[in-house]
Amino acid sequence: MDSASLARLVESVGSYRHDSLMIIRHGHIVTEAYYAPYFAGIRHDLRSVTKSVVSTLVGIEVQRGELDNANHGILDLFSDKPHANDDDNKRAMTVQHLLDMTSGIKWLEKAYTPDETIMQMYRSPDRTAFVLDQPMSNAPGSQFYYNGGNPYLLSALITRKTGQSALDFARKELFAPLGITSEAWGRVDAQGVSDGEAGLYLSPHDMARIGYLYLHDGMWDGKQLIPPSWVERAKAGPVQASYGFHYGNLWWSLPEKGAYMARGRHSQLILLLPKLDIVAVTTGTLRDDEYYSVPRLIDDISRAVKSDTALPADPIAQSLLAASIRQAATERPSALGGTPELAKLVSGRTYRLDVNELHVKTFTLNFLDSDSSWVITTDSSRADRPEERFAGLMGLDGTFRKSPPANYGINAARGRWLNEHTFAIERRILGHGEVQTWSLTFDGNKVTVAFENTDGARAELHGEATE
Asked: Is the pTM of this model over 0.85?
């Protein structure tokens, strides 16, 4: 692969809000870049890449004979679980329909507002039963519709067949054989079912191991973990999906470009180009309206391929690639304004907020010559610990300041004054697929806090300084 082309790719991807880019060809890492403040070794929120891992676990069940094929009726597999809205369409729904997002279940999942089906599912005391209860909108197999309830049922099926959560089953049958050690899968419901539609964390290296398994038709170290036919369906994408993509076995594909992939929101990606013997991985925290398109990424990677054997040494091109990787790891400071006199008045003051949807109780800013910081307390609604405290360092020089690791990860934050009365903090937890912005506007003892994140959530909070 041409190092100069890869250098341009590293720089192009870095112009968006990516955390990492890795390209592997013929089993060798040819490019590995981490974009500051993110750095190597931190496991990352995979979002809907989780779905493709759930598919892989179902494939393992088929390979092991715990599920003889994917054409079983779902209601037969959950025959002891009562369900509402029974009809011929629901009785015709199979495991394969869930894997292809063609189940026919009536479902709303777009902006994750409280009234949408996906959010109702999360509020349900038995999420598996909730999905099984939903009415049908059309015949299974007749229409592609992206639906987080489908992989949730598949995760529940894994638990039903193996007696383990999807996480525990994955640790024994997938992660251990592949040498994956970075995993975390945060959400398990009251019935012991792992969230099948999201929630898995892996490092970029371990994401690449999943891709490498598929690149080699489900074989790892001489052992067939998933059937080759399982991989072939993911690669072929027999279902016409959205935006020109195809779909199959919870994997996306672009057959005309010879590519298939596991995709998650904000550019979480495991990309396979089998004809070029390439696995590529990206992670990020992008907004939905700013992204490096997958077709463009495929084209840029493909154009960098010049030969099936090693190219002659090109020290200049190699130095360009090394420089682009170093530049990616070096944070570019954001623009700064001045510091108003107000900073001295609000520094160290605690502002108590009115009851709000974010459950934030207090906010404190500390402006110091070094190690400036922020502190937030929230209502946990727990009798044993009614209040949670979150705190971190805050860069005032246009760069993120990282805090020591906490149980939820590594905080990185930077802040700046937007005008004489408003201070904005950009906060992220490294490896989480979102960035938060908190803008605090001070008016005497009162404060108005405008919150938004890259998932599209927004809120306005009001409060005033405590004595």
From this structure: yes
